[in-house]
Amino acid sequence: MSILSGKKILLGISGGIAAYKTAILVRSFVKAGAEVKVVLTPAAKDFVTPLTLSTLSKNPVHSTFYDTEEENALWNNHVDLALWADSMVIAPTTANTLSKMANGTSNNLLLACYLSAKCKIYFAPAMDLDMYKHPSTKTNIKKLQSFGNVLIPAASGELASGLVGEGRMAEPSEIVSFIEKDMLSKLPLREKTVLITAGPTYEAIDPVRFIGNRSTGKMGYAIANRAASLGAKVILVSGPSHEILEYPSIQKIKVESAEEMYKAVHEHFGNSDIVVATAAVADYKPANRVTKKIKKKDATLEIELVPTKDILASIGKIKKTQFLVGFALETNNELENAKGKLKRKNLDMIVLNSLQDKGAGFATVTNKITIIDASEQISEFELKTKKEVAKDIFDSILRKI
Ligand code: CTP
Questions:
Q1: How many percent of the chain have pLDDT more than 70?
Q2: Sign of the C-alpha dihedral, residues 380, 384, 386, 390?
Q3: For residues 336 and 138, what is the distance between their CA atoms, to the nearest angstrom?
Q4: Is residue 97 within 6 Å of ligand 1 at its C-beta?
Q5: Distance CA 123, CA 113 (A)
Q6: pTM higher than 0.70, yes or no?
Q7: Which regions in the chain score pLDDT beneath 70?
Q8: Cβ–ligand 1 contact at 328 (below 6 Å)
Q9: CATH fold of 8-185
Q10: Is the beta carbon of 279 within 6 A of some atom in ligand 1?
Q11: Centre of ligand 1 from the C-alpha of residue 343, in Å
Q12: 324-358: buried (b, 16+ CB within 10 Å) or exposed (e) per residue?
């Protein structure tokens, strides 16, 4: 999945011949999963039509501060447009627009959006080679870079004038991969490995029966998706679960029993930087696994149970630099129990779910958590979707690592 998936991109098109390529650019962003809105300078409309761009982006396209053709003229709020965006891409950036951006001129909608934007801004210059070489252009580019705007350098090649040289806008595919690479390089968990346990475990009684629990794996899978979206290499050790992962890059190791989960976790623990244990691991397993199906009898049946290994506590004992996050699902005396587990298992953070909170726990799409860190500082959160909870958990982890 592209890092652009789900991202909101405001594409600003200024009036140069390279604007004809922006139809492909919009299409490429949309194909990568981004939501795209387009603003044009009035001059850009001579090179590419708003109809093409609105059809491809599936959003209205604006070039003026208000739409004059409407009976009730509508104000195109540049502040809203700019704040909506996760990234603004100005392609092509003509010499004229470049100069206005560098000097704070705001005489069209694109420039007003640019000045209002708080998001990351990419600009892809396009102009004739002598214009590109001109000291004022170089100075303007440097000025924009000093504002934190990211240059997508122009390429060399044949220009509209017939001259050959530097000044050609980067191709749409190059712009997309440039932005993807730039975004990936800035992800906070890049080069980190996150190991996650999720789901229930099944402890076999005989070949057809097991002792399990009601965990679905929803929370663990949401955490795995979040970690991947932050650029981490993710290893998910999952008990039986029907949940689906959003990121194909996540390495999923399927296990059934606590013992299998224990082995998989220990195999990968040494190479991990962060471990989040969300699995509802069985605390007991049948002492003996019967190899043949147990037949029904009139008498009562007793199954002897023995404790499983505590996976999290076992890695807590051997941890070096790893950041360990546990979960505590409690029904009573919640804070004290969670703090007890934090200490006992040598964790850096514990996420408490109370089954007394409506909407928290197994099989729900929501969860209500309290995070306790190693210094026993407590942060309470509202009832949220598990996806939002996963974000809160990683925001807290990122503040600590
Ligand atoms: N855990 C684990 N291995 C186990 C049991 C628990 O790794 N055998 C992990 C869970 O994934 C969770 C944390 O330990 O992150 C706490 O699990 P929980 O079931 O709440 O606590 P227990 O230690 O099992 O204690 P109790 O069941 O008595 O509350």
A1: 98
A2: negative
A3: 62
A4: no
A5: 13
A6: yes
A7: 68-73
A8: yes
A9: Rossmann fold (3.40.50)
A10: yes
A11: 13
A12: bbbbbbbeeebeebbbebbeebbbbbbbbbbeebe
